[in-house]
Amino acid sequence: MISKKVRELFVSLMEATDASAVSYDIETEQYSGNFNAAVVDKYAELGALVLVEGVSSSTTILINNRDDFLSSFAAGAREAKNGSDQSYADYNANPFAFSVGYEHYHQIAKKKRPVSGYLCHGFEREDTGLIHQQ
């Protein structure tokens, strides 16, 4: 199980928009925002993230192997939607991202009225289900 703080960090990256607390620069693939420094440091040490710049007001990070992360995150959400369990994470290129996507889907599904047009870099929630973002 992914801790709430860890899930919040990675989901904030997946939900980054110009209107959110976390921004994403499509040209540099960098995420900027106010993140939990302890979680960022831990995942930078583990190699999942690269700390580009860290100042008191904002932190800029990269996701290592972002394409693999997005694919695995979306695969986890898709398997959760299909009612599968997390055992499929063992067969995925990025089991951690798979698990974050899987748990994120369940968090979104718990909401009684999902936000219409919900957009996430890993997947898009619509009335018809999940669509992987290219």
Structure description:
The protein contains four helices and six strands. The relative contact order is 0.15. It is an alpha+beta fold. The longest helix has 16 residues, at 66-81.
Runs in which pLDDT lies below 50 for 5 or more consecutive residues are 124-134
Q: What is the distance, rounded to the nearest whole angstrom, between the alpha carbons of the first and last residues?
A: 27 Å
Main sheet attributes: strand count, strand direction, barrel closure: 4 strands, antiparallel
The portion of residues forming beta strands comes to 15-25%
Number of strands: 6
Sheet with the most strands: spatial strand order: 1-2-4-3
Q: How helical, in percent, are the residues?
A: 25-40%
The succession of helices and strands, N to C, reads HEEHEEHHEE
